[in-house]
Design a protein that fits this description.
Layout lengths: L5 H11 L4 H8 L3 H7 L3 H38 L5 H14 L7 H6 L7 H15 L1
């Protein structure tokens, strides 16, 4: 398989990056029809696909890291005794909502026999009961 020229390599990168074809042609000082013809070359098309797949993997990895940071932040907010009860409840509700668990109402918590206490303690106990029920 023939290697890509430096211009073709830059064009593949720009295409994979989502740039408009007209902008790529201008940046590379080529005719847009030249870019169109490159897209028909298997090595060029393969390189664009590879670059897009790499970008997707990088994005997914970044999102996984950000998701864990968001969870840690919500857990800290939920358990921080310096926060008001309503702030901690909001954090707990956000965690429950993102976990795909059904909302737990105050009545359900009381019916489950969860003793009174701080909102964080009530939510923790309710979560423990939900885990046992699964």
């Amino acid at each position: 398989m023939k290697a890509l020229s430096p211009k073709q390599a830059r064009g593949a990168l720009m295409l994979a990056d989502g740039r408009r074809r007209l902008d790529i042609a201008k940046a590379l000082e080529i005719d847009r029809w030249t870019l169109w013809s490159w897209e028909k070359i298997p090595a060029f098309a393969d390189r664009v696909s590879e670059l897009r797949a790499e970008a997707e993997r990088d994005l997914q990895e970044s999102l996984r890291g950000a998701r864990q940071l968001a969870i840690d932040t919500l857990l800290n907010e939920m358990t921080d005794s310096d926060n008001s009860g309503s702030e901690r409840i909001k954090a707990a509700e956000a965690i429950l909502g993102r976990a795909g668990l059904p909302e737990v109402t105050r009545t359900e918590i009381e019916d489950a026999g969860v003793p009174a206490g701080t909102p964080a303690e009530r939510v923790r106990r309710a979560l423990d009961r939900l885990k046992l029920a699964e």
